[in-house]
Design a protein that fits this description.
The chain is an alpha+beta fold. 40% of the residues lie in helices and 23% in strands. The relative contact order is 0.23.
Length: 78
Amino acid sequence: MKDLVAYLARALVNNPDEVEVSEIQGETAAILELRVAKEDLGRIIGKQGRTAKSIRTLLNAAASRTNRKVVLEIVEEK
């Protein structure tokens, strides 16, 4: 799952070297945290969150094949 998110994010942003995905295993679900360069944040979220929603949909489809639950969090650095 982590590789899928990294692949999709690198394809969307202008600075693919700054894409970082970390995975946290919870009791009921895995949480994936996506960090990108500040200027690429809008590209990942998209207009009205459509791109982020699409990434989450693809991630949930892949996770359902393995009977897992995965949550994607897009982390904004301050």
